[in-house]
From TrEMBL:
PROSITE patterns: BON. The lineage of its organism: Bacteria, Pseudomonadati, Pseudomonadota, Alphaproteobacteria, Hyphomicrobiales. Residues 2-70, 77-145, 148-215 form the BON domain. InterPro entries: BON_dom, Lipoprotein_DolP, Transpt-assoc_nodulatn_dom_bac. It holds the Pfam family BON. This is BON domain-containing protein.
Length: 215
């Protein structure tokens, strides 16, 4: 697919997505590498736009340079954003209370603290990404491992065995400290993502190196 066709497909897909106002998003394509520019009215819209582009066939990489401009003349104060973010995280039963701290500077949120599971780190991020006034998020929450490498490896391999699709795939699991490497070959990207999800679901996993080939 040539770059001109890919650019038009991306523009069409952005326009088709109802949760995005694509009027102020610029798209440039060079050899399958997409650069997004312009601005949107919320961080969630910015994140959604990137997700939309990522699913377009032919996209090799994305340089995301979209800015967030809060609609209207009112800018939410950092103190108010911090209070709402902290309360929202506290309401999430999946996140241990007081495990996550929030810092806000000019609308940019930084999450710190320690949790045991990757899904808890992701839950904290998901809880605040659509708050009004947020222009960006840095998720620096640490995942503190509580299991040995052998335990982590077994949990991931057991998760593969429970999955009707993954159990038939030749996927190797290597664990070093809190880092997991997946190797092998699968038939589809959805299967590869399922393997990634299973690996991230193991407690203590901080880094995932996915070397699974698709073909």
């Amino acid at each position: 697919m040539d770059d001109l066709t890919l650019r038009q497909n991306i523009l069409d897909e952005l326009e088709f997505e109802p949760s995005i106002d694509a009027a102020n998003i610029g798209v440039a394509v060079d050899d399958g590498v997409v650069t997004l520019t312009g601005h949107v009215s919320s961080y969630l819209e910015k994140e959604t736009a990137e997700g939309v582009v990522r699913r377009v066939k032919g996209v090799r990489a994305i340089a995301e340079e979209i800015g967030v401009r809060i609609a209207g003349t009112y800018e939410t104060e950092d103190e108010d954003i911090a209070r709402r973010a902290a309360n929202t995280i506290d309401w999430k039963v999946s996140i241990p209370r007081q495990a996550v701290q929030v810092k806000v500077e000019n609308g940019w949120l930084t999450l710190t603290g320690e949790v045991e599971w990757q899904y808890q780190k992701a839950a904290a991020y998901d809880a605040i990404r659509d708050l009004a006034g947020v222009v960006g998020i840095s998720n620096k929450i640490k995942i503190t491992p509580r299991l040995r490498a052998g335990d982590v490896k077994k949990r991931i391999e057991d998760a593969f065995k429970r999955d009707a699709v993954l159990q038939s795939q030749a996927i190797q699991v290597e664990v070093s400290g809190s880092s997991v490497t997946l190797k092998g070959k699968v038939h589809s990207w959805s299967t590869r993502r399922a393997a990634e999800h299973a690996a991230w679901s193991a407690p203590g996993v901080r880094n995932l190196n996915d070397q699974i080939a698709v073909g």
